[in-house]
Amino acid sequence: MKMRKILSLVFASALLFNVACSNDDDMIQPSKGTYENGIFIVNEGGFSTPTSEVSFISYDLGTLDNKIYARNNSNEILGNVLQTIGFNGDNAYLVSNVPNKIDIVNRYSFKKQATVTANLNSPRYIAFSGNQYYVTNNNFFDVMKLNVYNNNNSFVKSINFDRSAEKVVEAGGNIIVQTDGITYETTPPYNELPTGYTITIVKPSTNTVDKTVTLPSNGIIRDLISYNGSAYVLASSNTNSYIYKINPSTGTFTTATITGIPQVQKLRADGNKFYFSDNGNKIYSMNIDSTLPSAPIVTTPGNLYGFNVIDSRIYASDASFTADSKVNVYSANNGSLLKSFTTGIGTSGFYKN
Predict the structure, then answer these.
(1) Would 87 be classed as within a structural domain?
(2) Cα dist. 332→114, 308, 317 in Å?
(3) Read out DSSP for 304-324?
(4) Coiled-coil intervals in this record (predicted)?
(5) How far apart are CA 297 and CA 276, in angstroms?
(6) 27 confidence band (pLDDT: 50, 70, 90)
(7) Which of 34, 141, 153, 328 makes a 20 to 30 Å CA pair with 338?
């Protein structure tokens, strides 16, 4: 074969390869579903009425869709109190405190896949590890336990605690449970009291308690989050607030004292920063393991009930339990208002999908 023909064939093959690669690179991945890219919003409900629901706001804040559970499930009523949403694979787990159930939906279509009711009694929060998931149950009286389920939704066991079973997270391969929190005086004026100061580490390989961490007796434990492989616990008093970083393997911890900012209620982490809110609707930020804040980013109006920070945006609800709630979205950089919209009854949480 002549050299000219050989070169022509080589050139043609190279051109075809480049076009094929370019076409592969330019292919648009198909959408997984209506709710692929945005924020789920929990509308807790009015407790005495079956008004709990879920809203969805697109990531660009341009499209709001309320009552997506009923709309995608033949107008089925979700319940009275929707406590939280957890995610595992393609599913979202909707934990309802009233009634005692977990509705599992496809996170992209919001079509219901299953409902779990076994051994639930006032379920609160949910975490995932391997082929199992963990649900706290807490009626603040005589039920304080962690339920373990397989991913096929079969019940495995319960682990009982003495005083509380509230937030639960996965961190560093272990399950971390908030086993102390808040109670109240039994006579007027019913002041807040701590139940104690413990955090419990559960080993998923055995589903048994591995360690009990006793934190300093400062204020009341308010919140528990997981971030970058560590667990962080928020406590606060009438004078200061405290963030404890817990090593989930050893149970050792370090303390950051937020001096002069009392009654911090909620803790979040985003972009290597902490964000927290106090009982005066002030939202602060600080670099993790760095300088304490001197002034709030923003002070939100009304009843600050739901709060999260997602990709440098602060989502805050002005919650009503008798009418629709209002949500304000702020820049986490400077506190400027980006968007306001109306959601449902008792808006309490924001979750990135």
Answers:
(1) no
(2) 37, 11, 15
(3) EEEEEEETTEEEEEE--SSSE
(4) none
(5) 10
(6) low
(7) 34
3-state helix, strand, coil in the chain (%, to 5): 10, 50, 40
**Does residue 150 fall inside a structural domain?**
yes
Contacts of residue 311, Cβ cutoff 8 Å, sequence gap at least 6: 270, 271, 352
Burial class (CB in 10 A: 0-12, 13-18, 19+), 49: exposed
* Residue 56: closest CA among 48, 46, 44, 64: 64
Please state, as a whole number, how many other Cβ atoms lie within 10 Å of the Cβ of residue 33. 16
Task: Indicate if the pLDDT at residue 9 is higher than 80.
Answer: no
DSSP string for 82-122: EEEEEEETTEEEEEEEETTEEEEEETTT--EEEEE-TT-SS
CB 146 within 8 A of CB 132: no
Which CA distances in Å does 235 have to 174, 264, 307, 338? 22, 7, 17, 30
β-strand pairing of 155-160 with 168-171:
unpaired
**What is the tally of helices (H) and strands (E) in the chain?**
2, 30
The CATH number linked to 201 is 2.130.10.10
Domain-located, residue 146: yes
- Work out how many domains the chain is built from and give that number: 1
In a domain, 131, yes or no: yes
Cα separation, 85 vs 95, in Å, equals: 6
